[in-house]
Amino acid sequence: MAVTDLDGRILGHRDEPADIATGPEQCLLRVDELFAELTSATRDLPGRLWGIGIGVPGPVEFRSGHPVSPPIMPGWDGYPIRERFVARHEAPVWVDNDVNLLALGEWRSGIAVGHDNVVVVKIGTGIGAGIISNGRIHRGAQGAAGDVGHIQVAEGSVACRCGNVGCLEALAGGSALARDGELAAVEGRSERLRMALDQHGRVTAEDVARAASSGDPVAVALLTDAGHRVGRTLASVVNFFNPSLIVIGGGVAQSGDQLLASIRETVYRRSLPLATRDLLVQRSSLGALAGVIGASSMVTEQLFSREAMARWLRVGGPR
Amino acid sequence: MAVTDLDGRILGHRDEPADIATGPEQCLLRVDELFAELTSATRDLPGRLWGIGIGVPGPVEFRSGHPVSPPIMPGWDGYPIRERFVARHEAPVWVDNDVNLLALGEWRSGIAVGHDNVVVVKIGTGIGAGIISNGRIHRGAQGAAGDVGHIQVAEGSVACRCGNVGCLEALAGGSALARDGELAAVEGRSERLRMALDQHGRVTAEDVARAASSGDPVAVALLTDAGHRVGRTLASVVNFFNPSLIVIGGGVAQSGDQLLASIRETVYRRSLPLATRDLLVQRSSLGALAGVIGASSMVTEQLFSREAMARWLRVGGPR
Description:
The structure is a homodimer.
Chain A lengths: L1 E3 L5 E4 L10 H18 L10 E5 L3 E2 L4 E2 L13 H9 L3 E5 H12 L8 E6 L3 E7 L2 E2 L30 H5 L1 H13 L4 H10 L4 H9 L3 H25 L3 E5 L1 H4 L3 H13 L2 H4 L3 E4 L6 H14 L2 H10 L4
């Protein structure tokens, strides 16, 4: 959560894990608390609250601001997020998929500035993508665009949390890396991962990335394999979409070079020469702040859109 | 080739095969001849020539109207198609990829009217797609978007004309169907395909489609298999792009129901429920005319764009 000015400059910032699966009431109560804390702690708040931007990890009908059958957000389907915040704060509210906000952040203020066709891939627990087409967010017909994590990449029996088998994120997402890393630790195949397991009682994707950075061969193999799988899927995306830039972000991608190197190598090897001739594959430049910067950009973009300006002219000023 | 009025109504039409690989000079000489024939044969041409729209089977830099490293158009890389026609006809000229024009045609006047996010797939000799994102053609960074035919769908050794192996179109395009159908005829596995081979000295994809329509089991299996492969690729496209409509066009798709049925079944089975809930998979409604209708739409769209209007105001009228 961040408070920014209308230029997107961050005036205050809070960051903590949340379990989206506890449902909207419990999650958003904590958001309210943090919001109150943050605004009272942020000195020099320059005047009024112009708007609120919110990202959630699922498809959103952008017009209404309601989540639409979000697979990993039980209890949130159709929940009136916008109305809830409008009622409490008397400011306009926009809600979007969190990866769309990452993409918007990188595109307005990060590595993607100046590119009109961009795919921003978040590799965290799951895998998702935000898409810029012709200089605009492409949300798709149901707000579900960018769901690359559930593209089927393998036959066989690895079950995904979405209910299908063989999905990209079930094989190459953060949860998959943690699962395979923990297995390697338990089976005694990796000393470093064993140490992580002994210390914390579990192995995380970040443990795997750290072990790979210090040369652990099992961890390197896990990340390389995940990168190849992500890269093969992105090679198809490149042929279909022809972006000039792919941005790789998310916790797993931030924590080491192995994964990015492996993704990059596979994308260049598997896509058509024309589509890769000027293609860049870069790490996110805003990192963990991309989301809040994107949310702030969404608010200013909506506040000062042509349509909003026309409305202001009719009603005599911003409401 | 067609002459239309500004409403897109077709006043005259010619259709003949052309071998794009003979290079621009030879190809376009024949285009000049047809153009002269068509305009002299079309009675009641209402006044001036407002513009010319041209589609070519390869990536085009839309701004300049030049083909960009088109894989199956030897001799056309960077060829100044626009300048050539402007010099001859003193009218504005726009050039685009032929599948983009199919998409534009279906979107302006065909089955895709009213849909903002559409993928139009042409299954002819090769396989390509035209993409509408947020109500605009998505051409990608190099004009190479929609190149789904060269997504790698299989390991192994089936060589593609693009130089890679395992591409979708090498396994499921019209050439692949013709090749596999001819093999079945030679090996005596299909009586109907054998008859086609005896009659014409070769088997075409259309022969395979016709044989399947009359129940030939080998032909049915070939089309079903091709449809599954196309469908699996499109399922990935659906997860990434979330269109509300997929249009299937091109010679092979027009010639029977087997292929469409098999594509449809696979897309619905393999994509995420949310992305397929309101997804339609339909046959092209304009068929072979989609391209010329799209080219005509492109001309009027460009002639009467906001930018063009602003230019007219500056220079005192259309030039």
